[in-house]
Predict the structure of ABC transporter substrate-binding protein.
Amino acid sequence: MHKYKLMISALSLLASATLANAAEVTLWVRTSSGAVLQALAERYNATHPDKIVVTQITAEQMVPKLGAAIAGGAPPDGAVLDLIYLPTFAAADGLEDITDWVKGRPEASAMSPSHIRLATYEGKIYGVPALPDASIIAYNTELFEKAGLDPKKAPATLQEITESAKKIAALGDGTYGFYFVANSGSWLIYDFLPHLWAAGADILSEDGRAATVDTPALRETIAAYRDMWKAGAIHPTSRSGNGNNAVEAFASGKVGILMTGSYIVNLLTAKYPDVKFEVAPIPGPSGGASSFAGGDSLALMKGIDEEKKRIALDFVDFYMTPEQQVFITKEAGMPSRTDLAKEAYAKFDQRNLVAYDVLSKARTPYTFSSDELFVSRTGPFVNLVQGAIFGDDVDGSISKAQSDFTRILERTNP
């Protein structure tokens, strides 16, 4: 009995010591990704002595709050935030260098390329993909058939989109061929810029420090959109809407082609099961395909404790496993690895593979002034699209955008 009591005491002391040595890693997550990250943390915590503690931050407040916390010397251990902001935080020396760790992972080559590109600054890597998404087009196969188009053949060029949209609009009865969100910079970089990338062009230089607005690809893209607008093929709320009504307009059966994102497959099948649709990559003016790589990356804060750094990266290892990537697919729609199509989508709608496959060649603007250039409702990118597509002075709109981009970049480049 005495030996038994001693054994129990020893085990109790060992358990107490283990709990005492367990560490907590704080992770700020924007609310749009909060549920999935919280679930992943709970799955990790259930099998590990150390804990990942998730705090959800309103998406619009993430960047200013994180910046203030870093400046005040009290940041979280890590953050899961919109990948487009990583160059800014990396340039401000706010993130921890994890280059060697990333390059040493067996799945390194399968991590979403654009997420790694946006996490790279001056040759060092400061983040990894967490919850990506990609932009695509959805098209109503019933309207295609009614307009004499092949519902099994997705438009492979922007010119084909234009021709299809005009034929669908010609059906009349309040039917429109095309819907895009023209009054939101966040939407426009998501579904307008891929036309340029598909043509091998861009609106910024590779390092994000110079404006390259005026390109043949941009002018061809604008010409196609102007053609659709003048023909009455674009839904009228495209011009002034902020995206809130885009899905509903498409689901009504009155829109032929919708510029949208990877979420659309699961959303339509769940909420609008009667809509007959297919999805396809976003084409360039004359061909090619691209997409906006959106979503979140996970980054650690500069100076994080080495033990907490080990735990945080162990959590990344955990959610990068095939089992957890399948879980992410079930909960959020797209895994962050590009090599798990069979496992991730075996039990899900195979149309999801269109966005998944294009993620490997998707891009994201690399910039240190994303909000001012692209997101602002009065910024140069929104003004460019509004002026060049719906206005009368294409040359003037492009010239002004080049000038405004350059002025902002000269002031904000690190």
User: Anything to note?
Assistant: Residues 22-133+293-361 form a domain with the D-Maltodextrin-Binding Protein; domain 2 fold (CATH 3.40.190.10). Confidence is low (pLDDT under 50) at residues 1-20. The two ends are 71 Å apart (CA to CA).
